Amino acid sequence: MTDKKKYVYQFGAGKADGDRTMRELLGGKGANLAEMSRTGLPVPPGMTITTETCDQYYKNNQKWPEGLKEQIREGIRFQEEQLGAGFGDPENPLLLSVRSGAAASMPGMMDTVLNLGMNDMVAEGLAERTGNEWFAFDSYRRFIDMFSDVVMGIPHESFESAMQKLKDQRGVKEDNELTAKDLRDLVDRFKAIYRRETGFMFPNDPMEQLEFSINAVFGSWNSERAKKYRKINKITGLIGTAVNIQAMVFGNMGETSGSGVLFTRDPNTGENKLYGEYLTNAQGEDVVAGTRTPEPIKNLKKALPKVYDQLEEMTRKLEKAYQNMQDIEFTIQEEKLFILQTRNGKRTGPAAIKIAVDFVKEGIVNKQEAVKNLVTTAQLDQLLHPQFDDKAIKDKKVIGVGLPASPGAAVGKVYFTSHDAEDAKITGENVILARVETSPDDVGGMHASEGIITSRGGMTSHAAVVARGWGKPCVVGCDDIVINYKNKSLTDGNHTVYEGDWLSINGTTGEVVLGQLPLKPPKLSNDFKKFMKWVDEFRDMKVRTNADRAEDATKAKEFGAEGIGLCRTEHMFFEGERIVEVRRMIMSDNEKERRESLARLLPYQKEDFLGLFKALDGDPVTIRLLDPPLHEFLPHTEDEKKDLAKQFGISYRKVKDRVAALDEANPMLGHRGCRLGITFPEITEMQTRAILEAAIEAKEQGAVVLPEIMVPLIGSGDELIDQKNVIKETAEKVFKDKGTRIDYLIGTMIEVPRAALVADEIAPHADFFSFGTNDLTQMTFGFSRDDIGKFLPDYLERKIVLHDPFQTLDQKGVGKLVAEAADLGRATKPGLKLGICGEHGGDPESIAFCYKQGLDYVSCSPFRVPIARLAAAQEAIAQQENK
Ligand code: PEP
Ligand code: MG
Fold this sequence. Notes:
Bound molecules: phosphoenolpyruvate, magnesium ion
Low-confidence stretches: none
Largest sheet: 8 strands, mixed
Number of strands: 34
Number of helices: 35
Strand content: 15-25%
């Protein structure tokens, strides 16, 4: 009995079985084709084999489910009817394209076969029907090449070199200088290569060709490069790829035909104009391959004005239908326009902002849709990236200017293979990847790089598209320089740069510059400000910043921070002359001397805090008491110890003994955090006094102050009670001395797993909890924060972890502790203020988690504040929509 399950969805002639909502089943491309057909766009008729079929194929030992073949035959009959052609019919042949398409976009990762259905008879027939023998045999040789490469794994280079040999023999340079007779000859040569490599004749039966190709697309889902791309882009949970089989239309049928790619808006700037390239008398792959230089799309207006107008009108329709900027592939067959593909276009950060703001202005989307869909946190991140500081550059040595493919400035040491780039990145280097051109096999190296440069290729080349998507500065087609893979160098003829040398690239201007240029922070546009205002309309979780210096806090406030969530006071202990006093305090073996040192440190601390309170005027400032192990402040080398002994007038032996006494086997779990304040309460006293005196002074100077004193690294209620008593007693003394009182809060970090588990015991004594997820991750996994680099690459490679848990919160384990502590804390003390100040406070995925836990705020580094604001708003909208 035939399986009734639907494996194949048809589209074309203004109808479709599927629609845009069916991405999971039909893949992105399939769902789009169906939708486009529904919208009435001129898509060539076709069918999509579902992702579920791919899944079944794998589950079923790589065999087709029953019924699939018949459904495919039905699909072909439909296409034959639509175009009045026949699959394998020499009189009027139907030729097919076979393409992969998963639910998530994976550009260039999967395989494609074009012109399928070709054989000797069909090629002759096509030549006769079109009166274009050249085109027929050009299509035929392309098909043999692609089929052999994609389906049988015979390298494309074998065919390239056969073609080059023929061109040399004929004494011609360009492909299109070969005659039709030459192409017939080439077909024979290609078939001979196929026979030699496989031991079989090239398959003549179109249906057999199709079956082989479908299996190759299924197979490409699990290719190494596809798996790697999914890993880098964190694409998980997909069951397989769909296969799109569509009637071919031909852009290579003479001067009134052509192929092109375009974005409905400029993907670099967001400007509202068609942006793209096309080639006359060419098939789609010619445009991206870079073998012929494409023309800018505006030239089409002169060449084929009607088609251009139709194209323009269609892009407007598509933007409205998809509520997003589109990336379109089109073909013109004898002045008839066909849209082959449309998808949301990849764009830079500045372009994303401009498009979002313009789309709202033009009424295509509302503010909520713009905030939710049109700008990603990664794009926002790009805007906050540094630019070259032109004023600081006196005589930069530009060694080449290429196409500005993805804006921003990047500085790094140059590497010439993807592998070398990845290795250098692991050792902590900033890397620039230089390639003649990139292919999907290079994604690992591209990802590891700060910036990418290619000597070949255009604005839609692989390097350009991928770099733009990731927001990495990229210069392509820089033919001023010659890259030599053999001796790992590049040169402009005058200067040679070797592997490991510094290079700077400017993805905004296309310049490639010798050496290491200085960078400066970016300037933010009015559109950015407008967009961020909308973001805040949908956000109800606060965003604070981690900052220790007034200038950082001021920057963060400009970026929209609503308070300081963490001021790490130990950073202030290291600066300038303070370290001397800190050392004197640590060296002293009695409380009296310690107090004298602390008294000398007090004014410094007070001055710093005063700066913070004034900068934050009106917003809360959380200051954490001293956290790191004391020996971090002491000298390490013998010379340093000798100097210190001399400076303090004590014996070298005493210095050595004291350093040795303070040394710890495991400082991360040693004498740090509240343990310092508990053994040396005078430190807590001094810091409390500095905080409160600064707050009083700032208030007297007109600032609105909201000090929050935070106790680090507690694991029990009693630890907090101990420190709270010291803080409160000190506060009373300060208020008495100053003759005035101010409000302040005392809270604690939750960063020891035990603290999370006994949060109900801690909450009664705390005004707030701030999750220190750096230490909480360290202590929950038992992974050293400082040594994870030694094993993380292996863990990621073998999927023992899916991401660095110090970057993206481990929701399953660490998150469970956060949730537990939040619940226990609030159950004991309703309204307890909750925040997060570990690095995860700036990570969008972790921010979404914090939102779900009902945290009052996240706190992150100043440059991540806008990202956190957007992530919080997007999660709020998503939750709202779920309701
Ligand atoms: C934390 O542990 O998450 C934290 C914010 O503190 P630190 O990184 O200073 O240890
Ligand atoms: Mg910590």
